[in-house]
Amino acid sequence: MRAPLPAPRGAVSKRLLESLLGAEDVARDVVDDESGPERDPEDDALALFVLHELHYRGFEGVDERWEWSPRLAPLRHRLETDLENDLRARWLASGATVPEAGAAGGHDVPTLLAELVAAEDGPSLARHVQRHATREQAESLLRQRSLYHLKEADPTTWVIPRLESGPKAAMLEVQFDEYGNGDPARMHHRLFEDGLRASGIDAGYGRHVDEASTEVLEQNNALTMFGLHRRLRGAAIGHFAAFEATSSVPSRQLSQGLARLGFPPEMCAYYDEHVEADAVHEQVVLRDICAAVVAAEPEQLDEVLFGAWVCLDLETRTARATLAAWGAA
Amino acid sequence: MSIERSERSERPTIVLCPGGPMLVRGEAVVQTQDGATHRTTRPVSAICRCGATSRAPWCDGTHKLLPKERRPD
Q1: Cis-peptide, bond into residue B57, ω within 30° of zero
Q2: How many CA atoms lie within 13 A of A139 on its CB side?
Q3: Dist. CA B54–CA A144, nearest whole Å
Q4: CB A325: neighbour CB atoms within 10 A?
Q5: Cβ atoms A241, A113 nearer than 8 A
Q6: What keywords sit in the KW lines (chain B) (predicted)?
Q7: Residue A222: what pLDDT?
Q8: Nearest Cα to A305, choosing from A234, A222, A223?
Q9: What per-residue confidence (pLDDT) applies to A78?
Q10: CA-nearest residue of chain B to A166?
Q11: Rounded to whole angstroms, what are the CA distances from B4 to A240, A244, A296?
Q12: Phi and psi for A293 in degrees, rounded to 5?
């Protein structure tokens, strides 16, 4: 069964969800809520998440023609513009320094990205799960992570046709590994599904959207937006680099924490796989994708660093919000 | 086309990452100090060079937690 439509979280998502239940060809325009200039970040985040999911697996009972419907385009454009503007404003305000482009000999892109990642000192959900989290907290985290992990690697796959041969070949090397090297049982999103099922958690696609925090929705939205817009390809690969570069060590901590809490081996195996796989992916993405793209298009350096920063920033915000909700901040 | 061909021909099968692991492209069997053999299972594999991995012979990212002088060249 396809994913159920989530519950609305405000006027914008309510209007969108109601429209999606009708046939696309007879619908009126899905206009934005114009009741006032006040934006509700949670409502907006859910609406954009739903719009993006039309490009992945869709929803039960929703006309598939909605995916490319011009009736949805104005709302999606407004939501993506707001999200991108927010992210860029925060990136500028963060004071993260971007080196002058065009210096002789170019930039050592892997080192710049590694330094950006190393400078991030936000709280870590993985460390909390490793040592302190309760079973209930860990289950809640797994349900919220399922929004991404059940479509793991898919948002990045959108970028492949936008790359030249060198970085494209390197991205295929990484993605083939993400997709189980041809074995569906080893596919990363399948490993997560198997882990959830063994843990007694509903492993169906899109089943836990109602539980996801605004921050988790925004993580998914930024990733999909970067993937779906050719213009944002630099940010997409930068995000990919930061994601892979911050995965191995936290995956080991999560595996240890889940084992401590008595989760089954299938759930730990998902994270064990990422300890090794992402140690490889990090190197390939930094050198053979990001460095290669910047060498060919030096103006993409800022975008690559922006995308990496967004990945780190959104994870920090998710960690802060989640730890605060657990009284563990 | 000629650019693509030369790019492919110069593509390394073994890469030493500064401060990090050794990447190996394609299938390989790695023998560790204890004589045990480990077959690669990925398009690219990362072999630990810092000696601190918990999943020998594969890299587990631990080199990043070491002080710079203890990381491989």
Answers
A1: yes
A2: 14
A3: 29
A4: 12
A5: yes
A6: 2Fe-2S, Iron, Iron-sulfur, Metal-binding
A7: 98
A8: A234
A9: 95
A10: B7
A11: 25, 27, 14
A12: -65, -45
Question: Minimal Cα–Cα distance from A289 to chain B, Å?
Answer: 13
Helix (H, G, I), strand (E, B) or coil at B13: coil
Tokens describing residue B9: 């021909």
CA–CA distances in Å: residue A11 to residues A7, A43, A61, A136? 12, 7, 21, 31
pLDDT digits (tens, 9 = 90+) for A248-284: 999 999 999 999 999 999 999 999 999 999 999 999 9
pTM of the model: 0.93
Per-residue tokens: B34:
């204890």
- If 0-12 CB within 10 Å is exposed, 13-18 middle and 19+ buried, where does residue A96 land? middle
Confidence of residue A98 (pLDDT cuts 50, 70, 90): low
Quote the tokens at residue A252. 């080991």
CA dist A287 and A109 (Å) reads: 8
Q: Is B61 in Cβ contact with A280 (below 8 Å)?
A: no
Please give the C-alpha separations between residue A172 and each of A153, A258, A273, in angstroms, as whole numbers.
11, 31, 18
pLDDT of A63 > 50? The answer is yes
Q: Rounded to 5 degrees, what angle do the CA atoms A246, A317, A48 make?
A: 100
- Two structure tokens written together for A34: 């114009």
Amino acid code (one letter) for A165 = S
Q: Cα separations (Å) of A15 from A3, A59, A75, A210?
A: 19, 16, 11, 17
- Give dist(CA A112, CA A305) in Å, integer: 8
Tell me, what DSSP letter sits at residue A289?
Answer: I
Q: How far is B35 from chain A (nearest CA, A)?
A: 21
Beta bridge partners of A59: A3
Residue written as token pair 């925004």: A218
Mutate which of B8, B25, B42 to disrupt the A interface (most A C-beta within 10 Å)?
B42
Question: If residue B29 lies in a helix (H) or strand (E), which one and from where to where?
Answer: strand B29-31
